[in-house]
# Entry
Amino acid sequence: MSRVPAARIPGSSTASSMSGEPLLRAIGTFGLAAAIVNITVGGGIFRLPSSVAGSLGAAAPIAYVVCAVAMGLIVLCIADAGSRVSLTGGPYAYVGAALGPYAAFLSGVLLWMLGLFATAAVATVFAASVGQLVPALAPWQPLVLLVTFGFWSLVNMRGVALGARLNAVATLAKLVPLLLIGIGGLFMVRPEHLTVVAWPSAADVARTSLLLVFAFAGVESALVPSGEVRDTARTVPRAIALAMLGTTALYIALQVSAQGILGPALGQASTPLADAAGAAFGGWARALLLAGAAISMFGYLGGMTLSVPRIVFALARDGYLPRALAAVHPTHRTPQAAIVVQTVLTLALAISGTFERLAILANVAALALYLGCAVAAWRLRSTAPAGAAAGPRLPLAGVAPFLAVPVILWLLTGMTGREWLGFGACVAAASVVYLLVRAGRADTVAP
# Structure
């Protein structure tokens, strides 16, 4: 299939970009699909049904459908681009290969920011959930976080294959309680709770769908270890399709079940899925869902500990961070320095709790990143060498970017002025860093 010329890959002036990467390609279709589901089905889905119902009432499933369609177009663009670029970095590598180093750097920053703050946010909720399940641990939340991140860091430093296998186990463990309420709860719904009294406005749907982007986000982070995926041309599209179809069906079933069981009370529930399970099946089911939420977030932290450090590795590989962070362990062939640095940063944010005011920026970062991926998919496809193999046939891949871009722009109308201002400040700061790095490189090569 067609591949972009090496000179157009971000940081391709380095030998590693031109000759390949030393990472071990050990992730297959089901391993990558499990990683996507593991990251996508994190802690958010255990809380979001309440927020969505509070905004749209019984019409809440509409937002899931809208967001699923939008994300379907977006992941189709990501899958098409991912089947053509196999470097570590995921969307960072795709955008850089298509649009050049500045766009690549901004994409890397957006991807890293999204992963960093999302991981820290879920870690804080995870520690609180463990405290609820085991009251003796409630005063020791920093220790719980330290042990959790220490465990996942050691696992991923030992090798990507082991991390991928444990992610698959965590994914299976989290799905069992969700399937209980998602499927079993459908038999307990009350039809009057699903009756739409007033249809929501397009603006309300846009804002709520924007909120749900977090529930569907995960593909961009799970694809960061692209340099460790076997046969990317086939593995990436298949894994994305398998993961997204299953996730969408599960989310809609969960919202319908919770709405049908709790009715108007869903909008005020602090633990909506656990409350729905308790109302439908009893106290044991509520306890199972609470434990499932903790397991889900534990698995999410493992998936992000696997993926996000590869963003640090990719940025260092291309000269935007110290080269030491691009070092690969000679035996385990993992970016251990990047894993340690990313873990320390995430742990500090999670323990301090000062990141909440910036967490909303992750929504804008995700959509801006998706916009770049859509443009990159079009660019990579349109610049393929004449006569090159087309690679795997993806339905609607040729028109997906033209459909995804207006959908993303529509979702962005749900942002507030304050959120736009914060996002602009982050982009401006990143641009300054990029210019300083470029200036430093120019001084280095100057006679």
Summary: The radius of gyration is 21 Å. The chain has 18 helices and no strands. Residues 1-9, 11-19, 385-390 have pLDDT under 50 and may be disordered.
